[in-house]
Predict the 3D structure of the following.
Amino acid sequence: MLARVSIFHQRTELMQRILVWDFPTRVFHWALALSFAGAWLTSESDRWLSVHVFLGYQMLGLVIFRVIWGLIGTHYARFSSFWFGPKDALAYLRQVLARQAPRHVGHNPTGSVAIYLLLLFALLVGITGFFTLGGEEQQGALAGWMGITQGRIFKSLHEFSANLMLLLVFGHLAGVIGESLLHKENLARSMFTGIKLADAGAPVARPRLLVALFMAMLMATYGIWWFFYALHAPLEQQLGGTAGKPKTPAVAFVGPKLADNAQWREECGSCHLAFHPSLLPRRSWVRIMSEQKQHFGSDLGLEAPITAALLTFLTDNSAEQRKTEPATKIELSIKVDATPLRITETPYWVKKHRDITVADWQSPKVKSRSNCAACHVDAEAGTFEDAAMRLPVL
Ligand code: HEC
Ligand code: HEC
């Protein structure tokens, strides 16, 4: 059934104010808008990644809800009431440009197609984000399912689809403004109140039982969110761990567990943080260990067998293993003919810390660039997760 089209351009005495956008549709609409805007604003900085991801899951949940609501919602929320295709959209657009477009109480054909595209892109952005998180950050339910390089492919797709979605949002806004002017009504306000003027006899969105269903749906959405976000651990763990082991308690944003070694912690962790081997490439560790008698001004005085054992641990777990995002990116950033002795001289490290001021570095809480633990809670573990960054009050 198509939305009732009013042939009147002028408002008539016969028109009445009716409920068009039911409560769930309005909540959905603004929640989606806020999630997208928030995710956009938090997309650049690593420190906001947890918020960004939360908003992404929220968006996915909302889209799922909207699809269900499009099937069982009230009249104007149902897809059947605005089942228009690209041809209808273009035809309507032409009518709008000629200023002859009839007013639709529900979604007009162009707006309808914009809505389908927005839903599709919200889904794409959400799914590619989910894969990016699993691949590039090795976090979330898909952690460990693919490499960081594949994750980066998803990241490009994620950014690409998000940019297209932003364009669609602008198109949608232009449409809302144009349509509001054309038919002299405030469409944005009706998305708050739900009320619009319609001819007598036009279908009314009657909630009742459906509101109860809506609440159930909301719970389901949050169930999905809870499953993937609050229980932010790989799927195997969420589904009961391996071989009868008890379920691992899942904590948000814990990176992969990296190789550890007691001897290394003891010998290389006495003067400074034991810098995890994944933070430098193999050749750097070879050089550091071969020059251990002049280690940044001190002689480490290590005996040959210990040096050999340390070197094995360091080179076996070097950046080339690409177990974490920092390892991968540090490794890719170093020129092939360079053998840095410092993590703090690698191009990736320099780039990530370029916004930190000289005064911050000299603060008594930091003192040295190599004092990673001053700002990274997980420095000991070597994972350097985005969510584990804590800038001390400088
Ligand atoms: C006797 C003290 C001492 C011990 C033991 C020591 N280091 Fe160091 N290390 C230093 C000093 C001093 C620096 C320079 C720190 C600075 O500039 O802030 C340094 C810096 C480094 C850096 C560069 C950090 C950066 O700026 O990116 C690496 C890598 C490093 N050490 C690795 C090791 C390894 C591997 C071991 C164990 C084999 C080790 N260190 C043991 C004193 C030590
Ligand atoms: C003064 C505080 C401070 C110190 C000390 C510091 N960092 Fe950072 N680091 C930061 C901040 C802030 C960021 C985030 C920059 C941003 O938002 O993109 C960051 C980002 C990073 C990242 C990127 C994380 C990611 O996933 O994008 C890595 C890796 C990293 N630091 C490693 C180190 C290592 C290794 C050391 C020690 C050698 C260190 N940092 C010392 C503050 C610090």
